[in-house]
Design brief:
Elements lengths: L2 H31 L1 H12 L2 H9 L16 H17 L16 H12 L1 H12 L14 H23 L3 H4 L8 H18 L13 H12 L1 H12 L14 H23 L3 H4 L8 H18 L1
Helix pairs in contact: 2-4, 5-7, 6-7, 6-9, 7-9, 7-12, 10-12, 11-12, 11-14, 12-14
């Protein structure tokens, strides 16, 4: 390569890189400007979405009304993906787990929340793969995996039959709105086969989690779901000082509480150690008003409290 050719080649790479960086900068600006819209959708999901979803289930909405927002997992996936990207862009944090979930009022509500997290179609597909036919892989087409697997693993032993019954009671119009390529008829056929299989083998849940390779990976995933600062704030409130309420400032609550409640018993010390090892620049980028020094000071107090109380 001559000098002229080399410079021309590098100039092309330079121009291409500049353009990609410019596009990314614009995309990030557009993404950050989306926050009020996401807040409005998040508020809708927490308030009126359930009533609108049930009206659709009962056939009360016009057939020609566009309503992707009411699909079984569309809005949840959007909010989860937004939060994940927001944390990636801002190098944000993680979450913890306690002894109660204040926003879940009964076992049936808890079962419903977990099923909504998975998506009814995904749940049936994964349970069918896990308990009946290992060649069935439609569940792998879902864009988000870890929150679904976590809800499945944390509820299958207790809620498997409840979940299947809920799916069998669902309106077919809602079941057909899924991203994994199954028709409502296929979903309900698999659901009935699962019930028969469970009665035969008395075996309600799965025994492995294919996408989590170790306990440390599982701990890290759960902490990332909560956000490190949120986790420390909630654990500090729960275990040390009930007047500390910064954790309540987080925009999303249920996935954080779920990760905390499903992992605190097993991972509390691991999570605290991970937070104490974190770069302060990452910890200071949180939405709950804590400095990195606040977070690490509380983490150290929690370790001392845990040692004291066994």
């Amino acid at each position: 390569m001559t000098r002229k050719e080399r410079i021309t080649h590098m100039e092309n790479l330079f121009d291409k890189s500049n353009e990609v960086v410019r596009q990314l900068r614009q995309a990030i600006a557009d993404f950050q400007a989306l926050q009020p819209t996401i807040d409005e959708l998040d508020n809708y999901y927490k308030t009126d979405w359930r009533a609108d979803f049930e009206a659709d289930e009962k056939g009360k909405l016009p057939a020609d009304l566009k309503r992707g927002v009411l699909s079984e997992d569309g809005l949840w996936d959007l909010l989860e993906e937004y939060q994940r990207l927001d944390e990636c862009i801002g190098e944000n944090e993680v979450r913890p787990r306690l002894t109660h979930t204040p926003h879940v009022n009964s076992q049936k509500d808890d079962a419903r929340v977990k099923l909504r997290t998975m998506g009814a179609s995904w749940f049936i597909s994964y349970a069918y793969y896990n308990l009946y036919d290992k060649s069935h892989r439609n569940w792998e087409k879902a864009k988000t995996m870890q929150p679904r697997l976590s809800s499945y693993n944390n509820g299958a032993q207790q809620y498997m039959k409840t979940w299947i019954s809920m799916v069998l009671d669902m309106n077919n119009n809602n079941l057909k709105k899924n991203e994994i390529g199954l028709t409502p008829e296929e979903i309900k056929i698999m659901a009935r086969k699962l019930l028969v299989e469970m009665e035969k083998n008395d075996c309600p849940c799965l025994t492995h989690t294919p996408h989590v390779n170790s306990q440390k990976d599982d701990a890290r995933v759960k902490l990332r779901t909560m956000g490190a600062s949120w986790f420390i704030s909630y654990a500090y409130y729960n275990l040390y000082d009930k007047s500390h309420r910064n954790w309540e400032k987080a925009k999303t609550m249920q996935p954080r509480l779920s990760s905390y409640n499903n992992g605190a018993q097993q991972y509390m010390k691991t999570w605290i150690s991970m937070v104490l090892d974190m770069n302060c620049n990452k910890l200071k980028k949180n939405e709950i008003g804590l400095t990195s020094e606040d977070v690490k000071r509380m983490a150290q107090k929690l370790l001392i409290e845990m040692e004291k109380n066994g």
